[in-house]
C-alpha cells in the first residue's frame, strides 16, 4: 500500500547538507525533494535503548531535521551490550543527554529535543504533539499501548518494534492513514498483557545484534513514511527469527470490537477479555473434554521451552508462539483441526489462536492459561 509523504519539503538544503546526503540524492523516490522532507521532519523516538539507539543513529545520518528523544532512565553498564548509542563513559548519565551527544557527533545540525520524562496518560499528548512520526522502541506493554493510543488520538503514524531473545517484530500503526484502512497496536494485541504473562528482556535476554537489525528496519520505515516512497509495513507485521535467519509476515486488519478507551490490564479480570472471534474455553470445560474420548481435542502450548519445562501442561503439544506468528508451524500443521491453545495466563495463546483460526484451524483459547489450570488442579 503506497502512502503519500507525511512531511512537506519546506526546508532548503545548504551546501554541506547536500554533500552529506549525496547518496540519498541519487535514489529514485528520495532525491532532493525527499531529502528536503527529511530535513523538515520532526520524528520522536521513544526509548533510547536497544531499538532506539540504531534508530537515532540512522535518522541522524539520514538528515532528519528534528529528533525528539523520550527516556527517563540513566545509562547502565548492562545496557552497552545492545544500546550502541551509549558508551562506557556514559554510564550513569541521562540517556537523553548521551543520545543527544551521539546525534550531534553524526550531524550537529540536527535539532534534538530531550524529553527526560516517563510517559503517562497525563503528559503523553503534550509530549508527543507536533511530531510527524513516532518511533516506539519502548520495552514495556503499558507504554506501548499508551503510545499507540496517543498516536491514534493525534492522527500520526507509529513505527513499532519489539525484540525478545532471538525473535523480533516490526510494524507501522496508523489509525487514519490518507488511504486504506488504519490499524493500531490494539488490532494486533487487543488486550494489554499482565506483567507476568510475557517475560521482559531483563528476564529472558536479548541478542544485541538483533536490536541493530530491527532498529535499522524501523529507521527505514520512518524514511519511507516521511518521503512517501515504497510500501510501509502498515497492516503487516514483519516477524524476524534470527536463529533460523527467516523473515515472514503476518497480516493485521482493523478490529471493530476494540474498545476506544481500554481499561488498564491490572483492572481487567483474567476472564474479562473483549469479545472477538476466538472462542474462550474455561479450565472446567477443557477438563471435561480431555476426559471425554468422544470429544477429542489437542492442547497446544505456545509458551517458551523453559516455561514448559518448569510447569508442563499434561499432554500438551509444544509449539512456540514465534513459530505460529511467523507461519512456520502452519506449513506442516500436524496437530488436528480442533485445538485449545494455552500459555501462562491467556494473552499469548489468544494471539496464537487468532493466527491459527485465520489459517483454518478451529482454535480456542484457554481462559486464564496455565495459572488457572494449576489453580483448579493443584499439585
Question: How would you portray this structure in words?
Answer:
It holds the Pfam family Rhodanese. InterPro entries: Rhodanese-like_dom, Rhodanese-like_dom_sf, ThiF/MoeB/HesA, ThiF_NAD_FAD-bd, Ubiquitin-activating_enz. The structure is a single chain. This protein is of the alpha/beta class and 379 residues long. Helix content is 34%, strand content 17%. It folds into 2 domains: 237 residues, Rossmann fold (3-Layer(aba) Sandwich), CATH 3.40.50; 108 residues, Rhodanese-like domain (Oxidized Rhodanese, domain 1), CATH 3.40.250. It is elongated. The N and C termini lie far apart (52 Å).
Salient structural properties:
379 residues, 2 domains, ThiF_NAD_FAD-bd, alpha/beta, five-stranded parallel β-sheet, thiosulfate-cyanide sulfurtransferase activity, elongated, Rossmann fold, ThiF/MoeB/HesA, nucleotidyltransferase activity, 15 helices
How many helices does DSSP assign? 15
Helix content: 25-40%
Strand portion: 15-25%
- Per CATH, the architecture of the largest domain is 3-Layer(aba) Sandwich
- Average pLDDT, to the nearest integer? 88
Shape type: elongated
Predict the CATH topology of the largest domain: Rossmann fold
CATH class term of the largest domain: Alpha Beta
Question: What is the strand arrangement across the widest sheet?
Answer: 3-2-1-4-5-6-7-8
Q: What's the number of domains?
A: 2
**Element pattern in H and E:** HHHEHEHEHEHEEHHHEEEHEHEHEHEH
Number of E-type strands: 13
CATH superfamily of the largest domain: NAD(P)-binding Rossmann-like Domain
Q: Please give the alpha-carbon distance between the first and last residues.
A: 52 Å
Major β-sheet, in short? 8 strands, mixed
